[in-house]
Design goal:
Order of helices and strands: HEEHEHEHHEH
Distance between the termini: 35 Å
Helix content: 40-55%
Strand content: 5-15%
Number of strands: 5
Radius of gyration: 17 Å
Largest sheet: 3 strands, antiparallel
Number of helices: 6
Strand order of the largest sheet: 4-3-5
Length: 124
């Protein structure tokens, strides 16, 4: 197998490991980027010192003009939530996105409900 084909999965296309997308980082620089946090692009230009990857730019375009939860953004972009949280932390530091905490905790589903949903999905 040639080296070129090592990084391509015939069904999925090019394969890049999540830690490579996040530059080896596993945690967001900001604790504000919660799984249910709401994110929206500020529309400000990127600072000259900003090192934005293609994935950063995809995140920005995915949040332009609309408030979206982190989990939904990750799903739409096909990236792991952990990677999206790291990249959104970068964008937050550059002032390119704003992050709101989720609505009050009473409105969020209970842990038992989430476990039931996960078990239901696994059963499919």
């Amino acid at each position: 197998m040639s080296r070129e084909h090592e990084w391509v999965d015939e069904e999925a296309g090019p394969v890049v490991r999540p830690y490579a997308v996040a530059r080896g980082r596993t945690r967001s620089a900001s604790s504000e980027v919660d799984l249910l946090a709401i994110v929206v692009a500020t529309g400000l230009p990127a600072p000259s010192n900003a090192e934005l990857s293609a994935q950063h730019r995809r995140l920005l375009s995915g949040t332009a003009g609309q408030s979206r939860p982190v989990a939904e953004i990750a799903s739409d972009l096909g990236l792991p939530v952990g990677v999206v949280r790291v990249l959104l932390g970068d964008l937050l530091e550059y002032g390119l996105v704003t992050v709101r905490p989720p609505r009050d905790k009473a409105a969020t589903p209970s842990e038992s409900l989430l476990r039931e949903v996960i078990n239901g999905l696994r059963a499919l």
